[in-house]
Amino acid sequence: MDYFNIKQPWNDDIMLLPLTNSNRNNLHNRESINKGKNQEDDDFDIDDDEEIPLYNKTNNEMENFEVNGDNDFELEHAKYDDFSTIDWLRDIMSEKTGKKKQINRNSLNQYIKSIIDASQSWIIVLFIGILAGIVAAFVAISAAWLSDIKTGYCPSNWYLNRRFCCLKVEDKVNHSCSRWVNWSQVFFNNPDHGFFNWIVYVFFAALFAAASSYLVVHVAPYSAMSGVAEIKTILGGFIIKQFLGAKTLIVKCISLPLALGSGLILGKEGSMVHIACCIGNILTKYFSRYKKNEARKREIYSAACAAGISVAFGAPIGGVLFSLEEMSSYFPVKTMWRSFFCSFVAVFVLQFMNPFRGKTVLFQATYDRDWHFFEVISFLIIGVFGGIFGSLFIRLNIRAQAYRRSTFLKYVRIAEATFMAFITSVISYFVIYMRMDESELLEVLFKECEEGDHYGLCQRSKRIVILLLITMIGKAFFTILTYGVSVPGGVFIPSMTIGACFGRVLGIILQHIQQAYPSFPLFNSCHPDKMCITSGMYALLGAMATLGGVTRMTISIVVIMFELTGTLNYIVPCMISLMTAKFVGDAFGKGGIDHMIIRLRNYPYLDQKEEYFIGKKAKDIMTLKDDLITIKSTDATIGYLKRILNENEYQGYPIIDKEEYVTGYITRSDLKTGLERNLLVNDNAKCRFGDLKNVSSSSNSLGSREHSNEVRNVDFRPFFDATPISVDENVTAEFIIDLFKKLGSRCIIVVRHDKLRGIITKKDILKNIEELDSEYFDSIIGIHRRNQETNGDKSYTLRDALRILKIFKK
Amino acid sequence: MDYFNIKQPWNDDIMLLPLTNSNRNNLHNRESINKGKNQEDDDFDIDDDEEIPLYNKTNNEMENFEVNGDNDFELEHAKYDDFSTIDWLRDIMSEKTGKKKQINRNSLNQYIKSIIDASQSWIIVLFIGILAGIVAAFVAISAAWLSDIKTGYCPSNWYLNRRFCCLKVEDKVNHSCSRWVNWSQVFFNNPDHGFFNWIVYVFFAALFAAASSYLVVHVAPYSAMSGVAEIKTILGGFIIKQFLGAKTLIVKCISLPLALGSGLILGKEGSMVHIACCIGNILTKYFSRYKKNEARKREIYSAACAAGISVAFGAPIGGVLFSLEEMSSYFPVKTMWRSFFCSFVAVFVLQFMNPFRGKTVLFQATYDRDWHFFEVISFLIIGVFGGIFGSLFIRLNIRAQAYRRSTFLKYVRIAEATFMAFITSVISYFVIYMRMDESELLEVLFKECEEGDHYGLCQRSKRIVILLLITMIGKAFFTILTYGVSVPGGVFIPSMTIGACFGRVLGIILQHIQQAYPSFPLFNSCHPDKMCITSGMYALLGAMATLGGVTRMTISIVVIMFELTGTLNYIVPCMISLMTAKFVGDAFGKGGIDHMIIRLRNYPYLDQKEEYFIGKKAKDIMTLKDDLITIKSTDATIGYLKRILNENEYQGYPIIDKEEYVTGYITRSDLKTGLERNLLVNDNAKCRFGDLKNVSSSSNSLGSREHSNEVRNVDFRPFFDATPISVDENVTAEFIIDLFKKLGSRCIIVVRHDKLRGIITKKDILKNIEELDSEYFDSIIGIHRRNQETNGDKSYTLRDALRILKIFKK
């Protein structure tokens, strides 16, 4: 707002609080301060996409804002700046008052209008479902084609990938296919020119990665990585403009297949959630009910999250539970219905598009054998592996990301991505299980040997075990380094593949032992004629356990696995492995990968699931009244308001009357709107902030306004909240957290006998919460603590042991 | 508390507010008033199961309650009277402060103790799962045996029911079985003496019903009906002592099989939820963390609800979603984990017990055919039927229940139940589908004809269609009259059977048409060699649609059906039918059967899913200050406190200081506790209610207490809430509703500048909400409205049409 920067001759006598440079930096709404420090530097050179028009109102138009005897002033929908937290309460309440107006006009016409209004949500989620399904099919098809084009092409139909090109003609055992020609065949007419093929393979990989990274870095920085952490934060009530914009969507849709095709060890699952949310956000712009209501938009995003996971895994119920368990802060039953609807539509569109030709979505495993009781030991081993791998992965990956952000690497992002793709493809070309498409590998690992030998997995040789272990370690190494590079892609599938390799190896070894010593007492329950160990199921459990270790989800994973296998038989093994993985993982540190990214990037996210204990009172965590800028309800003039808006960046101002009673709270953007609507008013004009009673009693005196044209009274009542949430200064911090969590308010006023004492924002709470585990977090990103513990990591031993015990609380 | 009834010479000069008879009845906490009017008369002759001991404290012991310089006074766990609402906030907060104390003592010993403490929840849900599984198996086996014993018995093993007696020897087609002998064979050695069999059948039916009803009426009145409405209310934060007690549990476990065996048209599903909750409640008594914390108990009940549905339908995920969608007011993710665990344990125990020998739980349907697009019309018809039947059922059943409560029928409950069983069995003996066990009928209706002809369902004759229609109408008629009779049992399965009959009939007719006119354009998509219409699937959809119409659930039903069929193929038909059923049902009136029962019985239940709009302000709905009894913080004496406790039944008293600032709120039971702990204190002793600051400043003056032994000062600070939730009198009622919903507080203090203006309880809100749809509810229970609409029901036409349109909002 350039307007506010015009220097004006300030009317000094109306200054109520001196604005010195010293108190300007520790003021109550530090949200604006984050702007500089919390974000990656070049990601945020964005301009407001919704400029607020400066109304050039005539005096006549302004009449609307004068006192008119009607006491029913309603706050409008809130407008939010970038990187600010939303006020759930106000957004939801503002809709309710809107409803009231409709109900008052009780005609059929109005009813029909209100229905169209109300059915908007269903229309939006319908379209999200359809579009998410289409995009998922597009991403799957193009990623598969790009991935295969590195090795050769299909001369009969160049646009077909290997699977479709070889449909029905492929040799099931050694996977040779004459219709697909590799590049050395094309150029040298010699299919066995391995070195040339390798060169082409690596070249394409690097090319795709460079292209993907270029798009991300130079066109839409927000489309990097999976975006799950940011969406979690957005769902928690934070504004990140353009993160869900059209540019991000388009770039992500193009660069995601490129990144996947380049062979970088990344998955598309988290990104599908981001894409679905982008679709949702763009659609809300065309529906009046959602356009300006950030709280309602969150409901749509929740449904979109469900659809994203739903198309990624082909698990509609799992998708909804993912949205409920992992993503959403606010998930009313109504949203659950819409999420289900959205999920199912998305899955059906995807099945209809049928990008996998006949296969059900992603992968499907069917086991008809039962598990044996002695296998519980293996399930525990898999769980422990999942937990340890998960926390190790989080630790190393977060450290790598922190390193990347603090060194020269942040200036050479495209080169970094290209190099990662280069080195990945150089190595993975020689290991068949690394070269394969990740979801294909998962599918193969999950398959039983009865269904045919795929890629030699059922051969009894040490070679397979070693190959699988190499794949596991290689993938783990590359994923840790790759997740965080400026390309789209998530860690769901990579972590699952790693776990699946481990599980399969364990299964193969156990199967071997059992067949070598069938009379060993442990194997008594095995049927002599049947395979005793279902190694495909072990792979599935491994995949679930590592996914659980990395993300710390439980129920959604169980349900996804249930939907994939279509049987309840393996629910118990799955729960054992997952619970073990979660417990072991939590013992080494709370929070999944996305939670850690939120911490790393300092997003203001208040975890609804966590029960925090700070042990302070409101007065200990509030920003004191003396550090605030307040508006005196009776003395404020237009000039003063302009000045406080101009001279600081605080997000809101409490309004007090002469006796210091709190009479309201006005946000920065509301104040801005109020001033914009009264542009032509003289700076000396008084502004009415009185509560309703005061104003109605003083409306008589206002009646004389028309006579004195020089000093006008401007009514600010439509622009501020006359009943902000206030608490006594002696309430506990836990109660305040509860208020933020459950009511979703943006700031809470602290009073003593209704007199202003201070103010608490979500950021104040978060600062206090962060202090609780700052030590642990510092240890992760590698910052050495200041206190004199001699051997840093060693000193954790007892503490870690205690943590293992503590986790049962969760 | 007899103690408080002892007349004492009241010290009149300390009376602050005159207690006249006129203001005694319209006082703020009307909860106690409900005691007389809202409940069925004889159901409530219960005594407090937890007598609060009257401590005979010596002066030395009382020292503990004096001011001791420590400012950290903590409220204890709240104690609640019967039929009072709980204070979620306080219960949850009191646990947090408990945690704080633990954390302060930071030793390994403490940690281990805290883990044992924390793992209590998992242990409880584990046991709930195990016991629910066992009880479900017991109920299933005994109900089946009782049901079969009406026709004959198994001479080889008298304790076997017909299915087990005839296992492997039964003729699959006409269901004859030589091992099972009927009663005329036993007595007359002639199996065909139909009349005698009929007499015995009817006699047993009446006998079982009488026994079941006797137990319910004379031993545990709470075990009547399904109990789902009450559990919903309890989960919403209401205390109904003994509703989940041991006596109720035992009686329900015995009388439920008797009721089912008597042939009354009732199901066991809702009752299983009640039984599981009873188990949960009894278990919580042995765990310190849950024993006294009513809010935490609700978390256990939520898990128990999930387990109940889970064993009833064999659908663990569906059970959790049922608990989430239908039952719980407060369902944090932590509770979801426990519910899942509980559900799975329950199902596995049940599968392990295997009461159905080989069959998976309840019924399982597998369809391998696809549905055709033209069938959407049928799905819509089924949905419309479900919706209309549902609302008709609710209307008639509620009217019947209201009639029963207001006439002589309430005095002849056992006779009524016996008569219902008599008349039901007299008629249903002649219709095979009515005589069959309900879940068996459902199973048969869901089956496809490829799996064999069961009970002639696959014969192509008009007779079957007519028989099914008779069954449908008969069951509908009897269920409407039976649900509400004093026996345990719910309406889930009966309403499903009715829908299944309808669906099957529709399927059979459509199949017939298709086979008669295969070339009709609509049937183009049918494969000539295959059956085109899957009439078993139609039955399933019908069952879901009527269940949806009666209960207004959606997602849980979809998931249950998904778990039953194990395929996603029929999700779309199911969603179409269910959504239609819900929309049509809602058009004729909001709320499922349980919601209406809650309305009928006037339980204080605030629906979390509903968005209410009252359009008033806090000051319009509050009870005014002048109608309240307040405690002046500085002047209150023991005598005065005893007096207000003795002379009225209000549930709480605001505490104000001299300037009328609100300094706290004390509940009736806390006041009682406080007085009991200071029994020996002189009535003239002053009570300290000052806020912490005041007290600490006045603690010096208290130091002199020891010298004057006559007038002691009693510190009441441990007994009251110094920071009750208070709001400005100008906030909207919608905001207040939000506070009640989300924070779960018990009462909200209304202030203006922190000075007491009034108080709002949940009941005040409910009264205002009830007014919104009182007209509709009156029409249901048959009360004629006072305003002069000429032809009552006809005038609804336009209104109903508008409602149909309005429902899209949901």
TrEMBL record, chains A, B:
One of its GO terms (cellular component) is Golgi apparatus. Residues 622-681, 716-775 form the CBS domain. It holds the Pfam family Voltage_CLC. It comes from the Eukaryota. It is a multi-pass membrane protein. It is found in: Membrane. The keyword Transport applies. One of its GO terms (molecular function) is voltage-gated chloride channel activity. Keywords: CBS domain, Chloride, Ion transport, Membrane, Transmembrane, Transmembrane helix, Transport. Its main location: membrane. InterPro entries: CBS_dom (IPR000644), CBS_dom_sf (IPR046342), Cl-channel_core (IPR014743), ClC (IPR001807). Belongs to the chloride channel (TC 2.A.49) family. This is Chloride channel protein. It comes from Piromyces finnis.
